[in-house]
């Protein structure tokens, strides 16, 4: 799954049962493992509670998604910020995150609530057009397009992604588009296709520190592979804004997080989001720690001090959290102005 919005997951499948009868309480009959289960000594704090989403724009977007059979990672992962983002938050910049290429992932990361299968349904050929039409009608200023991983497709779905971006820009040229992508199995040609489709921000999540990669992510993902994707996106198009996200509370140390942040700055990543990992079910990764808001504030200050142009850091921050807030929009507009004056 491309997005770490699933840090805030609710009940969700980890693996599809493929129609077989299974024993046990979870899809596929999978039991608890070495890194799963709930830790009774780690209690969820009050600062993680959120009000139920509501509001006029929220209801409009929700209804449109249902009519056009479109998926959002906001809903699939039960993100706690869905109402704030869809309604526009404090700055009035409404953001939605659409999940392309279906709702079933070919990978099984231990943190993620999105359902998985080795053989998901083929992509809907009308999805790029339907998605673009829906978004153009919503009145949102900034859209995040993400997707499940599609290792079953030759290009990993990059062409489908690019077609959606191109169609949306034709219908609404002023909208700003962020693409939160998979690693395309490390295929840099697939990265090129998307980078040159007209998007404004290229995002890909490394999810966690280097030591925890094999515990947290599907074996087909990897720290160096993710860094390679982000680096290639940055150098492939002048002025490209790059972004990534890291979950906290998985057992990482301060030194390991600093190392990851240094590695990201070494490839000139512009934007970093840091948020608390929340366990969707006992089958998923155990929460090792609930990081205090004060520590998140420290990491924001530290990240901006070492050169990130923007750091969003807080317990409920997700990779797509209020992605269109004013600072990011300003960055995009500055880049466009700079390029047009050359």
UniProtKB/TrEMBL annotation:
Organism: Opuntia streptacantha (Prickly pear cactus)
Keyword Glycosyltransferase applies: no
Keywords, alphabetical: 4Fe-4S, Chloroplast, Iron, Iron-sulfur, Metal-binding, Plastid, S-adenosyl-L-methionine, Transferase
Cofactor list: [4Fe-4S] cluster
Lineage: Eukaryota, Viridiplantae, Streptophyta, Embryophyta, Tracheophyta
Residue ranges of the region described as Disordered: 1-55
A Pfam match: LIAS_N
Top-level class of the enzyme under EC nomenclature: transferase
SUPFAM superfamilies: Radical SAM enzymes (SSF102114)
HAMAP family assigned to the protein according to its UniProt record, in alphabetical order: Lipoyl_synth, Lipoyl_synth_plantC
Name of this protein: Lipoyl synthase, chloroplastic
Compartments reported by the entry: Plastid, Chloroplast
One function term, GO molecular function aspect: metal ion binding
UniProt: [4Fe-4S] cluster 2 binding residues: 105, 109, 112
């Amino acid at each position: 799954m491309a997005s770490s919005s699933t840090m805030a997951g609710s009940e969700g499948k980890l693996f599809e049962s493929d129609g077989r009868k299974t024993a046990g309480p979870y899809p596929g009959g999978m039991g608890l493992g070495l890194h799963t289960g709930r830790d009774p000594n780690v209690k969820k704090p009050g600062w993680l509670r959120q009000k139920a989403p509501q509001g006029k724009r929220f209801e409009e977007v929700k209804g449109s998604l249902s009519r056009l059979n479109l998926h959002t990672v906001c809903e699939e992962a039960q993100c706690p910020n869905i109402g704030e983002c869809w309604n526009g938050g404090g700055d009035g910049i409404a953001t939605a995150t659409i999940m392309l290429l279906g709702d079933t992932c070919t990978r099984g990361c231990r943190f993620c609530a999105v359902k998985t299968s080795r053989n998901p349904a083929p992509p809907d050929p009308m999805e790029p057009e339907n998605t673009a039409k829906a978004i153009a009608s919503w009145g949102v200023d900034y859209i995040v397009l993400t997707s499940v991983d599609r290792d079953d497709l030759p290009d990993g779905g990059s062409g489908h992604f690019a077609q959606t971006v191109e169609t949306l820009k034709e219908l609404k040229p002023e909208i700003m588009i962020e693409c939160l992508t998979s690693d395309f199995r490390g295929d840099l040609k697939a990265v090129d296709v998307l980078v040159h489709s007209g998007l404004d921000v290229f995002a890909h999540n490394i999810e966690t520190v280097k030591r925890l990669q094999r515990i947290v992510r599907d074996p087909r993902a990897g720290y160096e592979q993710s860094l390679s994707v982000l680096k290639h996106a940055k150098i492939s198009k002048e002025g490209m804004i790059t972004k990534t996200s890291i979950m906290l509370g998985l057992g990482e140390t301060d030194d390991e997080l600093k190392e990851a942040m240094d590695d990201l700055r070494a490839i000139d990543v512009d934007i970093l989001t840091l948020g608390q990992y929340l366990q969707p079910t006992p089958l998923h990764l155990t929460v090792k720690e609930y990081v205090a808001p004060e520590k998140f504030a420290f990491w924001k200050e530290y990240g901006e001090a070492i050169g990130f142009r923007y750091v969003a850091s807080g317990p409920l921050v997700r990779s797509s959290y209020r992605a269109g807030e004013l600072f990011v929009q300003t960055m995009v507009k500055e880049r466009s102005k700079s390029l047009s004056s050359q």
